[in-house]
Amino acid sequence: MSEKKQKTEKVYSFLDKYISENGFPPSVREICAAVGIRSTASCQEYLNDLEQEGKIVRTGLKKRAITVVKGQKTDFISVPVIGTVAAGTPIFAYENLEEYCPLPKEFGEEDELFMLKVKGDSMVECGIFDGDKVVVQKRDDAVNGEIIVAFVDDSATVKRFFKKKDSIVLHPENSAMEDIILPDVRILGKVVGLIRKF
Prior knowledge:
Layout: H1 3-22, H2 28-35, H3 40-52, E1 56-58, E2 66-68, E3 76-82, E4 97-104, E5 113-117, E6 133-138, E7 147-152, E8 155-163, E9 168-171, E10 180-182, E11 186-195
Parallel strand pairs: 3-5
Antiparallel strand pairs: 1-2, 3-4, 5-6, 6-11, 7-8, 7-11, 8-9, 9-10
Helix pairs in contact: 1-3
């Protein structure tokens, strides 16, 4: 085994152990210190190799955004991340896209998914925080109690869905906020996953 391959495996082993013990990934500098890598640039090369091998997933360009993939090599899909929706534009318009994120193919097909960057604290009581990215399965309907993404007042919002006799209730998971009650609503999809930056 080459020296580079040995170092790459050490990085992988450290990532696996660190995440198992702490519940979140280490910083690049912590990886360097633990494995004996002299520069963060070299560390990024090892992380790139692991990502190409399907052993880790890095969600965007943020720090501490690494997930270790167990078992055999996993196939990935590229999913668009929607940021702020410009007024009057379709939600999937180019100007609303912030980046693309790799996700394990187990989430579904590329054309069935998108991700939304959460803004605000309306869902904090169910563990969805400002800056999180939710993985959304495209759908135009929902079942009572599901967490959905809806299009309201020219913006995409994450809320819990309830259908009443004559109205739709979009319920925030934050006791300091009130329900949004509408006669109808455009549903963009159901939240099926969450990615958090550290």
